[in-house]
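*** Fold description ***
***
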Amino acid sequence: MTAAHPGDPRLRELTHWVSVDLGFGESPITPASADASFRRYFRVSRGDESCIVMDAPPDREALGPYLQVAALLAGIGLNVPRVLARDVERGFVMLTDLGSRQYLPELVDERRADLLYGDALRALLRMQTAGGPQAAQSLPRYDRALLLREMELFPEWFLGRHLQIATDRPLRAMLDRLFAVLADSAAEQPFTFVHRDYHSRNLMVTDEDNPGILDFQDAVCGPLTYDLVSLLRDCYVAWPRERVRAWALGYRDLARASGVLPPATDAQFMRWFDLMGLQRHIKVLGIFCRLFYRDGKAQYLADLPLVLRYAREAAEAHPETAEFARFIAARIDGCLDRARR
């Protein structure tokens, strides 16, 4: 293990915690992954034992929600990292290692998609059935105020900062109408456990109890279709519309049979699914640009075209959001590639 990290005092402190406090000695510590937050993950090995160490700076990332949701999900039998050691004051946690086989690259083999998504959908159903009552009691509510606050990232960071499109009064009025429709649609749905980032980069392929589930610390009690659309209209991988529709309606049937969803027609459920996806992708367009301009993380810009395509297709599918699809065609499609990088 590296003894000193002069340009990285937190890594130096974490190294001391692992090597001295936890007794890993000179075991090597290597980067495991990074995500869109301020958290970092490292892998440390000792003999045949491999663990993940999370660095969550206390002034940036509270550990309480992660520990709370980890306990909730483990308690209902889902495959999440188990906490082996923690120093909440310093923002360090040692976790079991779920491996390095992320869903995303494994989906390149389309023949495996039904199997992998089947596992992910069964895990989602357990989250929503067994985890829903606990979410209602102990997690923040994904309420209208939060939904609207998330969507405001779109005019600020995507339109204003990235595309240099000013939000004048007519545009503001159109966005207000759109955001109200999306918030109303979300409120119509049954509320249950929502992971809030349930997609191919946060799911690990595991030999037992597939999938391993990561990055759940922002979980809330919210609309039933949110995690479903995060998974099936993933910002990092696209599937044909009819295949997505079949997966979505198949999940609707499972949710209805389990009692977490009241009877819902194909049209009603797909409207919820589409409009929930539109809310999410409007937010994500803003988040990906904020990650670049504020945090210096440029890799997410490459994913903007797919996210915008999802937003346009969902908006086109419903009369109450069609004006937003027309706005994308008239004002965004032609200038996205020319936006400054």
